[in-house]
């Protein structure tokens, strides 16, 4: 099986290391394609070429996924997959441009240097080649689980857009205080801020533009907390403690009002 990987960055290289295939790289930066090919024992080809391959894998930024499908569909003899991080847009584009070929969308839910880990998968049109790719991911120690484009993209609003927005918001709001004042909670948040802010801004911007409702929900929740009186704050706190998903204007129940506090404010 020969695989053209479009995008020679960290995720494209991770995919190349993980699958058992003859590797070919193409990138907007030809030198990056050559470097990836040299590192993984493959070869480099022009980004705008017409050579065909068994499988084409797209490892491009989310905002470019749909265009990359259209630009490279003619190069996929049997199958196309993507590791772009979104699923709705690339899956829809693959259905349009490769209706008679195998289609697979993958989202490794980790940075490449943290592999292996959980990998979300939409086998939109499974077959021999996509089955082989999934088997390679599994053999490398990843936990591959099935989802749908709709479920995946809705989940990303929480686990990526909202999570990143909450962490970055704390980083923007926090004052610089002496280390001795840190609590376990604030220290953990400081570590998360360092982790998120140590990445690439464009990647995080793509996540926010693709799954922006998550950040909006964080902003709405922060406003609710800031405006709450004691009773309303206690209700919001208890809802979080129980893991409830209740509309913001719901009134606290009698059980909520009677519930005794059970968390120490400094852990």
Automatic annotation (TrEMBL):
Region annotation Disordered: where it falls in the sequence: 238-267
Prephenate dehydrogenase nucleotide-binding domain location: 24-121
Gene Ontology molecular function terms on file: NAD+ binding; prephenate dehydrogenase (NAD+) activity
Keywords of the record: Oxidoreductase
Domain of life: Archaea
Keyword flag Cell membrane: no
Protein's GO biological process: tyrosine biosynthetic process
InterPro entries referenced in this protein's UniProt entry, alphabetically: 6-PGluconate_DH-like_C_sf, NAD(P)-bd_dom_sf, PDH_N, Preph/Arog_dehydrog
UniProt keyword Oxidoreductase, yes or no: yes
One matching Pfam family: PDH_N
UniProt name for this protein: Prephenate dehydrogenase/arogenate dehydrogenase family protein
Origin species: Haloferax marisrubri
